[in-house]
Amino acid sequence: MKRLFTAFAIASLLFSSIPLRAAEGDIVDIASGNPDFSILVAALQQAELVSALQGEGPFTVFAPTDAAFTSLLNELGITAEALLANGTLSNVLLYHVVSGKVMSTDLSDGMSAPTLNGEEIYIDLTGGVKVNASKVVLADLEATNGVIHVVDKVLVPSDFILDPEPTATAEPAPAEEPAAAQEPAAKDIVEIALGDQNFSMLVSLLQKAGLVETLQGEGPFTVFAPTNAAFDKLLAALGITPEELMAQPDLAKVLLYHVVLGKVMSTDLSDGLVAATAGGESIAVDLKDGVKINQSNVTIVDIEASNGVIHVIDTVLVPAGFTLQTAPAEEARPAIPYTGVTAALPLGALFAATLAGYAAYRSRRRA
Question: Signal sequence: where (predicted)?
Fold first, then answer.
């Protein structure tokens, strides 16, 4: 049991900088292939825990990114080298790992779990998902030997002691970047989408449908947002171009099918839950194997905006009434109905804002 916990602690550190899609491989493979986990990987090597996290497992790792480590280094006033030389490094790493494969849907508010260093971590679901005081920013990144949940702060066990020798020789890390990284983003849903090239198609569609202003409203809104790759799959399945998708008379219906009114965090979802969307149809939640909305996998959860929350999905949701038009005519978009907590906000709106940027994205891919 202790060996499993140790592996998890290190895995946690390794996995903090996970991309939109989880790479194939074990926990160490994923961490080693991501530059945002450089400190975590170095710590794992220093503590000689690599082989443990390459074991059969399964392991659950709460993994801090390099930014999380930088924040800790600044707080302690030491360098990364000084942290690696600390005699209690192994205890810190082991504090991030739990034995078994624990998906986000297995967590419950107030739940505690023992870690490899002997202490327990605590789950708080009252405002998103927190492990102790660290927020889970990306959940359910599956590896061949477990699962990784990315956290924004390094978990520090109660028995951690800063070695005086490394501290005396260490140069303090600059405070500006960590301080900025810890500040909560005050961006609305559209601003977040505009700032991420993976949502360029979505933004173009949002602009086309004239829904940008809607998604910049007070809300709150919950958006199940497809990436560019998800739109590529849809275009290939329909055999059409991005321009032809933008010209579809039912474009607004497709976009509105991705939005629900109200701020619904991942911890508010339950298996079999059905929610009304802005398009008038319903979406269904399936938690039997990860998190699914209809047949689309949720790859990133709980991206909080000033006016709601975004959950990233890998497949565009298509309402049952959608009909592909070969020569679609321009049509005015329907107003977004507000019928209460179950009403939906046009995720389609978010999609609408992206076509322009998406054309450039596809051109760069062809180049």
Answer: 1-22
pLDDT at 327: 58
Please, how many CA atoms are within 13 Å of residue 148, restricted to the half-sphere of its CB? 36
Residue (of 149, 36, 151) closest to 101 by Cα position? 149
* pLDDT one-digit tens code per residue, 176-191: 444 444 444 478 998 8
The DSSP annotation for 171-203 comes to PPPPSHHHHHHHSPP---HHHHHHT-GGGHHHH
Would you put residue 207 in left (φ > 0), alpha (ψ -120 to 50) or beta? alpha
Mapping DSSP to helix (H, G, I), strand (E, B) and coil, where does residue 300 land?
strand
Task: Tell me whether strands 221-226 and 259-261 are parallel, antiparallel or unpaired.
Answer: antiparallel
Tell me whether strands 308-313 and 221-226 are parallel, antiparallel or unpaired: parallel
Sign of the Cα torsion 135, 140, 141, 142 reads positive
Give the C-alpha separation, 25 to 32, whole Å. Answer: 10
In eight-state DSSP terms, residue 62 is E
Are the CB atoms for 100 and 58 separated by under 8 Å? yes
Tokens read off for 341: 């907590």
Going by C-alpha positions, the residue among 126, 98, 117, 113 that lies closest to residue 156 is 117
Which distant-in-sequence residues (6+ apart) come within 8 Å of 347 by Cβ? Answer: 223, 224, 225, 255, 256, 257, 258, 259, 277, 278
- What angle is formed at CA 62 by the lines to CA 30 and CA 260, rounded to 5 degrees? 95
pTM to 2 decimal places: 0.45
